[in-house]
Amino acid sequence: MAKVMLDVHELTTKYITRYNEDVYAVDHVSLQVEEGKSLGIAGESGCGKSTLALSLMGYYFPPLHYTSGEIIIDGQNITGMKPDDVRRTILGTEIAYIPQAAMNALNPTRRIINFIEDVILAHDPTENKKFIYDLARASFEVLGLPAEVLQKYPVELSGGMKQRTVIAVSAILRPKVLIADEPSSALDVTSQKMVIKMLKGLMETGFIKSMIFITHELPLLYNVTDDIMVMYAGQIVEHAPVKAAVFDPLHPYSKGLMGSIIVPESGLRDAKLTAIPGVPPNLKNPPAGCRFAERCSYVRPECSMTAVGLYTAGVGREYRCILSEKELRKAYERGQQ
């Protein structure tokens, strides 16, 4: 069996508002990522994807707070560790994060090499600058970035180059798990392709051990990840191998998410665009039953009464719905007629 790099059990985190209200943005999420594998997490804006990414780091700052669950990285349980210990021994080496809007994450008054110095010195304050520069230059060459970028300021780099540089800085210590939070957003098609190629190269060369790729564009994950988890209102509503998730989504939300996006892949490019009606629930007071019930075309009275768990539908596939797989497929067939 493949080694599990990231093992998350029933993780729940919340935001506490200025009015002391709890907003459960990540609600009992469980997942596993094996060595050499990449997991995609998809969902609309506000579903909890980025909060999940931050929560997986084990590094919490108000208004985000840990509530319950476990995060195990390569056999080490980081749950409950002190923030200083997490920063010194976990971040960068065990798990690393590429933030949203990464192009804006670079201080314009500092050279790229200075960011790398900060990352390395946070783990070992005794390292000398020559060693750091040599390591950075060797790593950039492996990642296909010219060494002269190290002496440049962010303003001297194009948008695509800045994004690739942030990825390189995040992965400089070769983390076991790399979380990429919408790394291709706000880029032109050519730059997106280069970023995706770079991330895949990190995996193929063993520079990183495993990856989580977060996006609201579910089809984008088809060429990047092995499995896909779909989030809605803080919960996982479907988990499936990438091909099944893109070409044969089972949960009504996953189905609607795919139907709302233009997909160039053969077999989907001619599909009609559809919209998901309504808005997500307020997570200050989430519904007792299915959180997608008010927007679902296949809702039944019992959907809003009791909480819905994840059900198995074949090898490596789960979905959160009271309808059986057979009932869902029949409903979809009727909808196409």
Describe the structure.
By secondary structure, the chain is an alpha/beta fold. It has a single domain (4-109, 153-336), classed as P-loop containing nucleotide triphosphate hydrolases (Rossmann fold). The chain has helices at 49-56, 83-89, 112-123, 129-142, 159-170, 189-204, 242-247, 252-259, 325-336, and strands at 4-16, 22-34, 38-42, 64-73, 76-77, 95-98, 177-181, 210-215, 227-232, 235-241, 311-312, 318-319. Strands 6-7-8-3-9-10-12-11 form an eight-stranded mixed sheet, with helices on both faces. Helix 6 links the parallel strand 7 and strand 8. The longest helix is centred in the middle third of the chain and has 16 residues, at 189-204.
